[in-house]
Amino acid sequence: MIIKITPDKEKAKSMLNLIENREKFLPSINIKEFSTIAAEHYYEIIKELMSIFLMLNGTKTTGENAHKEMIEELAKYKEFHQWEIYLLDDLRIKRNKSYYEGKQIMPVYLENNKEKLKAIIKKLKSLINKKLN
After folding, report:
1. Would you say 25 and 41 are in contact if contact means Cβ atoms under 8 Å apart?
2. pLDDT at position 46, please?
């Protein structure tokens, strides 16, 4: 469910600090050995950035399909391309299968998509920083 909220810049800044810690930790993960854990970290970083972006735009998702709806809400913004939305939804599905069913995410997935995920992270941070300044 998507609900209207009041943007909270202080909360956004606090959340960004936690995201920075996740980002600092990410390079220490051996992707070939721990690809599932690395993919889950990318997902958590992006999920939190999407949450901040939407919060600063006055919306929030909640409930059982909150992450799916968050991606769908992001698709409404012209700054995001269809391939980015598709990749985010694919990562969400893979993360959920690993998290809830124990399915592994293969290293090749990250090898093929790591730079794209980093670009999405960079874009979200840029859009967030514009809202915060």
Report:
1. yes
2. 98
